[in-house]
Amino acid sequence: MTFARQHRIQVVAHRGASEDAPEHTLAAYKKAVEDGADALECDVRLTADGHLVCVHDRRVNRTSNGRGAVSALELAELAALDFGSWKKDHDEVAEGEGPDWEGSAGDEVTSVLTLERLLELVAESNASGRRVQLAIETKHPTRWAGQVEERLLLLLKRFGLDAPPAQGPSPVRVMSFSARSLHRVRAASPTLPTVFLMQFVLPRHRDGRLPEGVGIAGPGMRILRNHPAYVAKLKRAGHQVHVWTVNEPEDVELCAELGVDAIITNRPKQILSQLSQL
Ligand code: G3P
Ligand code: CA
Questions:
Q1: 41 CB under 6 A from ligand 1?
Q2: How far is the CA of 96 from the centre of ligand 1 (A)?
Q3: pLDDT tier at 143 (50, 70, 90 boundaries)?
């Protein structure tokens, strides 16, 4: 199917360029910036000693050589783990060849990444003229009630990113499946854009209206495949639409056809290339 694209779709690197390098490592984010991603997506969790680190799962078992919940480990304990080597076993590579990311500087491909370091990367990139935005997802174990958002806003404040002007694009946005988490963020920083992530559409959101104050809708790709008309409802209700996780060419086509605003993907380079040809 071919069609003229009405507007430019933003490409957001999901956990960095996570198809090409271990997710949530500095190597994956540097690769995403190099590949031309418009924005970087990351999940954040609090360590036992109160640091925000970029880790998706509640536990470190899948993406490191350690075991246990992030919330039960201190940053120094996480720093002693290898967050990169699991991908070698996971990826299928041709015999005699290493994976693409193996050549990356050692620590960058194996160390746990703090949100602070990722914010530094974004600041460095923007200072050098390569503008890139950051979409931060709060993963929020209930035991931390409010502390993830509190620490996040303190950190954003240190980087001068907690209160972007209401007009113009914000360098940072906060995403969550939890309306309460987004509400906490908006209460502290009303101009910080928020994205309400949806795995499925609850009856109260069927008309396209989202929780009070949320500007951006974040439906999963499955919602678009099953209910493509939902995008128009969200747009009529005044929301931008950022879709996750879009890795397949036919899904990219559908997103473009429906006029979504951003595609969140593990493969920013390939998706940018496909979009440039639509
Ligand atoms: O960008 C939203 C998407 O990341 C939500 O799902 O499980 O990958 O955090 P998950
Ligand atoms: Ca995420």
A1: yes
A2: 33
A3: low
CATH architecture type of domain 10-58+113-277: Alpha-Beta Barrel (3.20)
Question: pLDDT per residue over 189-225, tens digit each?
Answer: 999 999 999 999 999 999 999 999 999 999 999 999 9
Domain spans of the chain, in order of start = 10-58+113-277
- Pairwise CA distance, residues 146 & 187, whole Å: 12
The closest of 24, 14, 76 to 55, measured between CA atoms, is 24
DSSP state of 3: -
Amino acid at 146: G
Q: In which band, very low, low, confident or very high, does the pLDDT at 88 lie, cut at 50, 70 and 90?
A: confident
Cα atoms found within 13 Å of the Cα of residue 65, Cβ hemisphere only: 10
Write the DSSP symbol of residue 139.
P
DSSP for 229-264 reads THHHHHHHTT-EEEEB---SHHHHHHHHHHT-SEEE
- pLDDT interval class at 97 (50, 70, 90): low
Residue nearest to atom 5 of ligand 1 (CA): 244
Atom of ligand 1 nearest to the CA of 41: 1
Q: Is the CB of 132 under 6 A from ligand 1?
A: no
Q: How many angstroms does the Cα of residue 194 sit away from the middle of ligand 1?
A: 14
For residue 147, what is the enclosing H or E element?
helix 147-158
**Residue 41: φ, ψ to 5°:** -105, 140
The ligand minimizing its distance to the Cα of 43 is 2
Interior/surface letters 222-249, b for 16+ CB within 10 angstroms, e for the rest = ebbeeeeebbebbbeeebbbbbbbbbee
**H or E element in which residue 187 lies:** helix 179-188
What separation in Å is there between the alpha carbon of 244 and the centre of ligand 1?
7
